[in-house]
Amino acid sequence: MKDSSSNQISLPELAEIFSEDYFHFGDVVNPPEKSDQQAGVIWDHLSLAKGISVLELGCGYGRITNRLAEKGARVAGLDISPVLLKKAEADAAERGVNVEYFLGDMRSLPWRDRFDAVFLWYTTFGYFDDPDNERVLREAASSLRKGGRLLIDHANYFAFLRHESPIYVVQRNDDLRIDIMSNDVIRDRRNIERIFVRDGCVRRTQLSFRQYGFSAFVRMLRSAGFESVEAYGQEGGTFTSDSSSLVVVACK
Hints:
Blueprint lengths: L10 H7 L2 H5 L1 H4 L2 H14 L7 E5 L7 H6 L3 E6 L2 H14 L4 E4 L11 E6 L9 H14 E12 L1 H7 L3 E6 L2 E10 L4 E10 L2 E10 L3 H10 L4 E6 L11 E7 L1
Parallel strand pairs: 1-2, 1-4, 2-3, 4-5
Antiparallel strand pairs: 5-11, 6-7, 7-8, 8-9, 10-11
């Protein structure tokens, strides 16, 4: 269950949220052309090239990971959801690419000094409390070689507070995914009640993640061992208060 003092979500709850229902709406939320564009942004920000080793934490069903593999990177992906990892493996096989997929917890990684780049995309960072979120950054740093780069895509809460609707609806044929969002301004967390309506059944899940500003990322990343930290908008341009996401790039 969630920690009442922090809204931290447990691993079984995360696995339940990122399940077959989540995958069912994947191409509606992130159409293939959008995923192609995002993979290009990641490729550029991380200065990737053919043969470079890359790890995605919270890789989901591989929509970004497999595209980077198609570009020639040597890619690995880690996720907590067995359901989504199976989808990722099937997609990799269909695309004819070789990607290593691992079931695991991003707070405890088995690799040291292995990768040239690590990234967390689509608001994959912040599910835990502050100590565990910082532990994720330390583990990412440990898995990187000297000079390696870390990229984090994080929701920009300034834009959310000013522009975004608290209700987000996705439809695929007769099926619906409804996200009801709210902000816990005391704990700086965004809470999402997610309702899936499929095949006459209604399923409800709850998701919460910590919202960080750039100055907090600088502090945490320097503490984790990174030497430089930069901010960008999701499309690769300058980060502003109107940017939909904050993209943080740090170098070890």
